[in-house]
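Need a sequence for this fold. Nothing fancy.
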């Protein structure tokens, strides 16, 4: 059973930066596709970014292009989300997710495991 633990959330002013981390255990990390999603109250959990096994390919939603970067360190079994130029509309609970197989990486159903989430709040 894969366990995912996010950290690094918090309160930041608009224009600031945060780096989220997600530590995985219980499975060979380098065989897991990883993604980040976010969710605000009353809304569907939405795709933010995804990364392939080696970290050589990354994917993101248009709204964060050029501001967020997903990366992974397989030696540390950790995936990161570097968030720069944060905006109030980035405020959400951010979730890390892991998948055994690859497919529509924007679809929540591709992912087999989820973390508990970490709150990111961006003040204006």
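Here you go.
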């Amino acid at each position: 059973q894969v366990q995912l633990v996010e950290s690094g959330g918090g309160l930041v002013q608009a224009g600031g930066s945060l780096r989220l981390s997600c530590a995985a255990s219980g499975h060979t990390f380098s065989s897991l596709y990883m993604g980040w999603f976010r969710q605000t109250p009353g809304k569907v959990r939405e795709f933010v970014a995804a990364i392939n096994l080696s970290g050589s390919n990354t994917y993101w939603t248009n709204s964060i292009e050029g501001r967020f970067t997903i990366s992974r360190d397989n030696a540390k079994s950790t995936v990161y989300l570097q968030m720069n130029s944060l905006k109030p509309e980035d405020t959400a609970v951010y979730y890390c997710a892991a998948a055994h197989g690859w497919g529509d990486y924007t679809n929540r159903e591709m992912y087999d495991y989820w973390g508990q989430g970490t709150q990111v709040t961006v003040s204006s």
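For context: The mean pLDDT is 97.
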